[in-house]
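Milestone M4 deliverable, item 7.
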Amino acid sequence: MEEIRLIKKSELHRALEFNAREYGAKHILADKTYYNWQFNNHLNIGDCYTSWGVFSKKDDQLLGVFGYFAADYNFFGKTVRANCLCNLIVRENLRSLGFGYLLLKQATSFNDLAIDYAIKKDIWPIFEKSGWLGENLKRFFYVIDPLKTQELIGGGVSVAASPRPGLVDNPDWSFEKIEEAGDSINEFWSEVKYNYPIAIERTSPYLNWRYLRHPLLDYRVFVAKEKGRVKSLVVLRLESPLNFCVARIVDLISDKGWVEYTLIKLIEYCGKNKVNWLDYFFSGSFHLSELKHLGFFDGDREPYSCIPLLFNPIDRTKRTKINFAVKLTNKNLSYRGNWKDLDKWYTTKGGGDQDRPN
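Output delivered:
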């Protein structure tokens, strides 16, 4: 028999050793700083990480892990608790014995929702059997420097520049970088959350943990304001692989009518910082009309579908898409709305563990 339980904080070395053996010594999940941040967020209390382990009762060896972090979600106007799953892996010689299914079952046996990202094809049947629904995130690009973008794609493709947006000048409007999220962000989120039927609660504690106090990555968080009141928030991360400079729009939330202004100011900022192009992963149809109006290109179409996902280092052989899957684990909430309509879910590359050091 095996025991499934949370990994204790005093067992950190065991978790890191397991991840280094299964993923590789240089994998981010073998990094102490990252592990302490990812599996011990602002909602976690007690002496355990938010990571389940399968332990052998015979010799207490760690046989498999499934990490997650807890997050509050807006679910059709009600705040509920979700498990955002991160890494499911079992020892290679044990992967046909059902431990993965047991870990998944355990990780979805409590709280109200579950969401996961980048699920591999060989693992997807386990999720499907367990009642999960999923699809690919959309990916859109804004091209500032077409020559550098062509160079990155390779193969002699031709890429057009996105149209440069006109300048926006209104004395009542501002676009500012923030270093800390506080009460004004909480007030803003309470006003706009109903634009996003199912989404992580972008409260100050969450944003500070996820972006502004990240121990390894430099996120640039901007807000647009009207007469001092926050109207939108966008999170950007720059990467500089080799001789390129790319920008990831990691998160974006907005009051109605403020998406275009926010993106225009963000494009201006990226142009001044010599960015070659921006990309933005998201679910549903949120902000889609504004993206198209500003000249963002659909990442499902060539040649943009050939742009790599990973840049540190640049990897042209792996996937260029990110999928996500969801499940309602508290059936008592089904009356609030149709959770199976994936257009109701708003998540981005920053919503799980996909925007991280490679």
